[in-house]
């Protein structure tokens, strides 16, 4: 639940999602759900010459289960808030 | 649960699906569920290869042979699936009505028809996508 809320706060930001098939897609975070499925807008594949498979795709849905990393904008990361939240979670509250 | 990134907005639109084994299937989204199982109508697979035209002609017989072999190995690639793209660049295999289990789906992209028609598939070359490794 923590990361679901965390990603919800990042809606509207530019992120890069790296998938477990090495494809990396950059776009504006449109929405996220409880499975951490992600919807991106204005997408572009990071290495378009190597991966032209999504040249005609501007908006996409990424299944949470295939996400390896989400690269966030530095200004979107509040480390203090995350520290507090993860400690609370670890305590079971 | 609040409305997340469901696929509602894509119903009856042309979408491009990338599966976990690296296949790219294009079709009209007819239905979906919680687990991202999807129903695609009028679908076709886009098969990418790196072969250029000259090599393609030379390798034509070899290609036919591997196509036959492929039919033995892959049930989806039989002669009931006509190839509608040429023998070069991106080939398109007609699949028809397809249901894809959510487990096997990586990405569902909204296909921009204008952008797509501006693409020259016969000139596109690419390695097949790698399979997803969990």
UniProtKB/TrEMBL annotation, chain A:
Annotated GO biological process: mRNA splicing, via spliceosome
One function term, GO molecular function aspect: RNA binding
Any Gene Ontology CC annotation: Lsm1-7-Pat1 complex
Name listed for the protein in its UniProt record: Sm-like protein LSM2
Xref: Pfam families: LSM
Keyword flag ATP-binding: no
Family: Belongs to the snRNP Sm proteins family.
Cellular localization per UniProt: Nucleus
Keyword list, A-Z: mRNA processing, mRNA splicing, Nucleus, Ribonucleoprotein, RNA-binding, Spliceosome
Function as written in the Swiss-Prot or TrEMBL entry: Component of LSM protein complexes, which are involved in RNA processing.
Domain Sm: 2-76
Keyword Transmembrane helix recorded: no
Organism of derivation: Castanea mollissima
Major localization class: nucleus
From TrEMBL, chain B:
Entry-linked Pfam families: LSM (PF01423)
Keyword RNA-binding on entry: yes
CDD domains assigned to the protein according to its UniProt record, in alphabetical order: LSm8
Subcellular location per the Swiss-Prot or TrEMBL entry: Nucleus
Gene Ontology terms describing biological process: mRNA splicing, via spliceosome
All residue ranges annotated as the Sm domain in the record: 2-114
A molecular function (GO) term: mRNA binding
Domain of life the protein comes from: Eukaryota
Annotated keywords: mRNA processing, mRNA splicing, Nucleus, Ribonucleoprotein, RNA-binding, Spliceosome
PROSITE patterns referenced in this protein's UniProt entry, alphabetically: SM
One GO CC annotation: precatalytic spliceosome
Keyword Lyase among record annotations: no
Self-association and partners: LSm subunits form a heteromer with a doughnut shape.
Function statement: Plays role in pre-mRNA splicing as component of the U4/U6-U5 tri-snRNP complex that is involved in spliceosome assembly, and as component of the precatalytic spliceosome (spliceosome B complex). The heptameric LSM2-8 complex binds specifically to the 3'-terminal U-tract of U6 snRNA.
Family designation: Belongs to the snRNP Sm proteins family.
Protein name per the record: U6 snRNA-associated Sm-like protein LSm8
Species for this entry: Sphenostylis stenocarpa
């Amino acid at each position: 639940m923590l990361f679901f809320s965390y990603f919800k706060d990042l809606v509207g930001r530019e992120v890069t999602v790296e998938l477990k098939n090495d494809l990396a897609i950059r776009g504006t975070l449109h929405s996220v759900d409880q499975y951490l499925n992600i919807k991106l807008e204005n997408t572009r594949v990071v290495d378009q010459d190597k991966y032209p498979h999504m040249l005609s795709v501007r908006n996409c849905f990424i299944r949470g289960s295939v996400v390896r990393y989400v690269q966030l904008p530095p200004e979107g990361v509040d480390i203090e808030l995350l520290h507090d939240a993860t400690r609370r979670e670890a305590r079971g509250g | 649960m609040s409305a997340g990134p469901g696929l509602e907005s894509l119903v009856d639109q042309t979408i491009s699906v990338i599966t976990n084994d690296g296949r790219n299937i294009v079709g009209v989204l007819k239905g979906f569920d919680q687990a991202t199982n999807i129903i695609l109508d009028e679908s076709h697979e886009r098969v990418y290869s790196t072969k250029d035209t000259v090599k393609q002609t030379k390798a034509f017989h070899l290609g036919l042979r591997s196509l036959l072999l492929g039919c033995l190995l892959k049930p989806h690639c039989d002669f009931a699936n006509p190839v509608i793209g040429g023998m070069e660049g991106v080939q398109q295999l007609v699949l028809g009505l397809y249901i894809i289990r959510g487990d096997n789906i990586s990405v569902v992209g909204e296909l921009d028809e204008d952008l797509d028609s501006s693409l020259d598939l016969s000139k596109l070359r690419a390695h097949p996508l790698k399979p997803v490794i969990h």
